[in-house]
Automatic annotation (TrEMBL):
PANTHER family per the UniProt record, alphabetical: 2-METHYLCITRATE DEHYDRATASE, 2-METHYLCITRATE DEHYDRATASE-RELATED
InterPro entries, per the entry: MmgE/PrpD_sf (IPR036148), MmgE/PrpD_sf_1 (IPR042183), MmgE/PrpD_sf_2 (IPR042188), MmgE_PrpD (IPR005656), MmgE_PrpD_C (IPR045337), MmgE_PrpD_N (IPR045336)
Domain of life: Bacteria
Annotated organism of origin: Saccharopolyspora cebuensis
Cross-referenced Pfam families: MmgE_PrpD_C, MmgE_PrpD_N
Ranges of residues in domain MmgE/PrpD N-terminal: 58-198
Name of the protein: MmgE/PrpD family protein
Ranges where the MmgE/PrpD C-terminal domain occurs: 225-372
Protein family (similarity comment): Belongs to the PrpD family.
Length: 405
């Protein structure tokens, strides 16, 4: 009987993309490139300049927390897979192979894996990046299975890193680990493909990959606000009623399934990064800012007296129920000078059920400071690789994979 790694590797080699798959790959390339470029001047991007290409580009693409998300696996697929593909000269087919494996493997790891505190973007991402890089290099299915096994030692990352540079760096490490594993497999390294499922059992995986459906089952959620996906829904809901608020807000009561706030670790954020993982700050920025953009998630914005005062007036009540960041719906009540305001929301804008239009995607690229006409006109993989190489250059200080190129 084939191992999980062997089954996923065979799927990756045999999958034939259809037009919908290719459209998703194009959107993912644009979204990831734009968000990485928006982080040109972020302190972490300068720190990560010492890392190899895949790690550097992935860290830059994740530090603003504006990159896409696969709901079923609770993983940020493109920020791992796009850099791995670009670093190895791949294209849409390599992206879809890696993205499809990451979606399926992440879903098989299950919500219990994520809710236990693992950063599934990394644990599912390292083996999937090995597939993406391996397909870009022309590896066979057996070689891809070996590469996945070789990526197991790097399949780590914990949610305790959320709100620090560690979150983005461990995503970068996952992308680079995949590239390294694929290169080792190409060079002839051996590994037992069963290592993947042995590791999965150790970390509490609950399922097996479903090899049916499109390249990325369920599609990808595109973020509208540059913060954790768990904050997208409450922010969007409050924006629907904020114009009706009169006078000072006395209290904001949020009721939501417990699972939907799992990654929101910071009730009293003090930095911009902590603010990206804070339900109380989601309320503050939704009510105080015209639009919660990059400026809303700086240290200065989070430390505003108005924001700090308001976030202390947020009351959270959670309920049991379905798992996942979009489980059930969020229900919010706002006490103010007028009658109590109430709003509820299921899927927020940008969710797979509410995908962005071409104009909305263009607006996001513009907000990221990308060269929108050039990026939209020439969104080929080689062109984006050249763009990131020019705009996010590395120093070459840390080159751990040199010996196996």
């Amino acid at each position: 009987m084939a191992t999980i790694a062997e089954s996923l590797a065979r799927w990756a080699v045999e999958h034939e993309p259809d037009p919908a798959d290719l459209d998703l790959a194009r959107r993912s390339l644009l979204d990831t490139a734009a968000v990485a470029l928006a982080a040109r001047d972020h302190p972490l991007t300068r720190i990560a300049a010492e890392l190899p290409d895949a790690a550097r580009w992935a860290a830059a693409g994740h530090v603003l927390d504006f990159d896409d998300l696969h709901i079923e696996s609770t993983t940020h697929i493109s920020v791992v897979i796009v850099p791995a593909v670009l670093a190895t000269g791949g294209d849409a087919r390599a992206y879809l192979a890696g993205a499809g494996v990451m979606a399926r493997w992440g879903a098989a790891l299950g919500w219990s894996h994520y809710s236990a505190g693992w950063h599934a973007t990394c644990t599912a991402g390292a083996p999937a990046a090995a597939v993406a890089a391996g397909v870009a290099m022309g590896l066979t299915a057996p070689q891809l299975a070996t590469a996945m096994a070789l990526a197991v030692p790097a399949a780590g990352g914990v949610q305790q890193a959320f709100g620090t540079h560690g979150k983005s760096l461990q995503v970068g490490f996952a992308a680079q680990a995949g590239v390294r594993a694929a290169r080792l497999a190409r060079a002839g390294a051996t590994a037992d493909p069963a290592a993947l499922e042995a590791w999965a059992e150790l970390v509490g995986a609950t399922g097996t990959p479903d090899l049916g459906g499109p390249a990325v089952p369920g599609g990808l959620a595109i973020k509208v606000f540059p913060c954790c996906y768990a904050m997208q829904r409450p922010i969007a809901a409050l924006r629907e009623i904020k114009d009706q608020i009169a006078g000072e807000v006395a209290a904001v009561r949020v009721r939501t399934p417990r699972a939907t706030v799992t990654p929101l670790l910071h009730d009293r954020p003090d930095t911009g990064l902590e603010g990206k993982f804070s339900l109380p700050y989601a309320v503050s920025t939704a009510l105080l800012d015209d639009y919660p953009d990059f400026a809303a998630f700086t240290d200065e914005a989070v430390r505003r007296d108005d924001a700090q005062r308001l976030l202390r007036r947020v009351e959270l009540a959670t309920s049991e129920g379905a798992d996942g960041l979009l489980a059930g719906q969020v229900e919010i009540e706002v006490d103010h000078a007028g009658p109590v305001l109430r709003v509820a929301m299921g899927d927020p804008p940008g969710a797979p059920s509410r995908p962005p239009t071409e104009d909305e995607l263009r607006d996001k690229l513009t907000a990221c400071g990308a060269d929108v006409p050039g990026l939209l006109a020439g969104a080929d993989w080689a062109g984006v690789r050249a763009l990131l190489s020019a705009e996010l250059p590395g120093t070459g200080t840390i080159r751990t994979e040199e010996a196996i190129r």
